[in-house]
Amino acid sequence: MANYLIKAIAVAAVAATVLSACSGRSTAPADDAGGTGDIVIRASYPLSGSLSSAGASAAGATAYFEAVNAAGGVNGRQIDFQVADDAFDPARLVSNNRQFVERDRAAIVINFGGISVAARPPLNAARVAQIVQGGERELGDVTGFPYSRAFVPDIAWEGELQGRYITENMPGAVVGFLGFNNDFAASQLAGLAAAGIQPVRTITLPPGQGDVASQVTELEAAGVNVLVTTIGPPTMGALLSYMGQINYKPTTFIGSPYADFASTVNPAGAQNVTGALSYQWFTDPQNPAVHDDPALVQYRADMARFAPEADANQSFTITGYGLAAAIVEALRNAGDVSSDSFLAAWDSLSQVQNPMLINDATLTGDANGRVVHEYQLHEFDGTSWVPRGGIVDVTKVGIVS
User: Fold this and answer.
1) pTM of the full predicted structure?
2) What is the pLDDT of residue 75?
3) What span, in angstroms and rounded, lies between the C-alpha atoms of 317 and 290?
């Protein structure tokens, strides 16, 4: 288990005790769940630190919520949205969430990444809805944590899709894996294993590492000719750039969270990404193939109007925008803004369009609390990410029951 998760468990145990003693309410905000006041939504994101690139999600969420407010709000109510920085530290995350619950009386709390496991016990004790922007498998435990939901798909599903493709199309492949040194990588490796793939080399790195020469040498020496990698900037760019320099050219599967121009194509150089494969579920704002998509046109307009200082080209930015859109859709369908009503509406989402999704994909709730289940294999052709085959719904191919 990664060090931050060990720390997270300790932090969560203390925070759960404190919040359960001081709150324990069944709805939030308890004094105006069915009234006409603002809908209080709070978010804790890594605006600084090793994963500060993920903090761009906050700007996307802000722009969408402000666009909704400008259009009259949700069922006549305005959204009061504020963001706090946790620097990807579980202790800060839990401290932020405690303030959201006790001081702000938040109806919904948004958290990012695997450290969000630390916030599940206190938020569930307070019975406040938690929406996590994270793909770790354990974030789908809605039985143990009935007030928590994970927005993005389980990275294990993508790992299984990759593994099935390798098994069916690349007999005799020598597979290597490079990812973060946390449960995100463990989840993806579990998906690969479910498809019968056991990498000959598994390398994990801390977020932010930029020198990967020795790791590439290790992969090449092991005879790896198919590389599965899901790791963020600056590591991804450095990885592909160095492989290009030494003319090491394994077939590369790039994990969807970082298969975008901002994280990968631009820093690595398009020539070093050409031929890479990726099972994608969200639209990259910089992908020329979808530049004129109406949803992206509206997204860029909202970003320019409501968050002009933000970088609308970041994939994390549009993911935050799409997350906010999903929350608003559920709020519109809920009878009130209590946590219970909101989560019931979230789980009942069915074939809902969302501005961040790839073409023809929709959001649909499931028993695991997740709403994104549709992928499409893409290949980078030197200029754009282009589809290879149709939409694959993991609920229909035996990956998710």
Assistant:
1) 0.89
2) 95
3) 16
